[in-house]
Amino acid sequence: MEAFISSLTARLSPASKVLQDTTTSEFKASLARWSDIDVRVPYAIVRPAGEQDIVSTVQEAVKAGIPFVPASGGHSPWSTVGQEGIVIDLSRYKGSSLHPETSEATVKGGTLMKELEVSLHPHKRFAAAGNGNTVGVIPYYLGGGISIYRPLIGFGSDNLIAAKLVNAKGELVDVSETENSNLLWALRGAGQFFGLVTEITIKTYPYSLLGNEEG
Question: In what residue span(s) does the FAD-binding PCMH-type domain sit (predicted)?
Fold first, then answer.
């Protein structure tokens, strides 16, 4: 395992972190989730700072045969791994942007629900979003995504337009209706089984659809 950590650290950018000391506040905060049921402590927590860092982490883990789970928000009751593996904490790779020409939003791996909604507010737009502020946007969309907006705009997965993911070979793959379209359909509701998703593109809607301009 130490050889794997050494090889991985050499490939990561300086802004990324590899946490191994379980007694530090940073390790504990990264490991924390909404429920401590069946909680397990990984050998290390990797906090990639960019998309290429995520790709490098997956590639090194696959090459070394190290099991891993991604974390974004910490609301899953089963995304945990013990000393045999690592957690890939995406919280350092976050952010969202609205494309004015299409009104679609691109959301990075560690972005939380409230962060997405706050970023859309200046544009007077909203997306299929749950009311749990600290839920990860990407796992919410990959898992179906039910909210009070469903009667108006459908489930979160209905609003997933495109994605980027790292597959089992460690390859970064673009997914859309024109590229790897079968994989796009697979991601809509069962995306956690097909790779580590680094980014998604989703539909957004005007506040006027809710009956007012203030949201």
Answer: 38-207
